[in-house]
Amino acid sequence: AMVRKVMDLERKNNKEMRRRGKEFKDSA
């Protein structure tokens, strides 16, 4: 269960990072 939770967190973080990166490119 722990591993699944961690993987879920990683996936969420990846989505957030990608979105932030997109915003970064747009603002740059």
Automatic annotation (TrEMBL):
Chain positions covered by the region annotation Disordered: 1-28
Compositional bias of kind Basic and acidic residues: 1-16
Taxonomic superkingdom: Eukaryota
Name of this protein: Uncharacterized protein
Organism: Nymphaea colorata (pocket water lily)
